[in-house]
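Bit of a strange request maybe. I'm writing a small parser for structure token strings and I need a real example to test against, not something I typed by hand. Could someone generate the tokens for this chain?
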Amino acid sequence: MSVAERTDEELLTALCQGEDAALAVLVGRYQNDILRFCVHYLKDVERAKDIAQETFLRVFVARERFDERRKFRPWVLCIARNLCLNELKRKRTVPMESLDAYSTRVRGRPGQVPGSNLDGPDEAAMAAERQAALEQALDTLDEESREVVILRFFERMSARDIAEIVGTTEGAIRTRLHRILRTLRSACTEQRENL
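Reply from user aminoacidic:
Good idea to test on real output. This should exercise your parser:
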């Protein structure tokens, strides 16, 4: 089996055994994800590049401490998150960006409610209103809740992986997501009734 065909966890084990090419494969697989993740926190591409690079240095240094029963992706994102949070503390806290700005940057276009090619002007206007209402509701979330929403729905991570990143239990994340979604539904219903 070639180095590129191995799982992330197998690559980290190989790195521990002295196969330096394994780190290059891991960097290739995760550099864009880590950079995007860091930009989310820092809102500065140059600082995010530095932190992303530092993340892989930390992976190399901590390779012996990796628990092979864990998944690599949550572990590396946890390292990146901690480095970002430390950088924010060092540079004074910068508020997290809005979900619309994050969605625009990640997808290359505003995060819009998808429409059909058959949609007419009325349907497009309704979709735009729904999108605006959703963005307004999301902007009411505190930073921790927004982080959980971003990890779950933008990064498409499981509750277990999110729990590992933020340092809590899977059950706590599921409960928090349930409460956040209930709050968002309530806010959207209230906005609809006020129209």
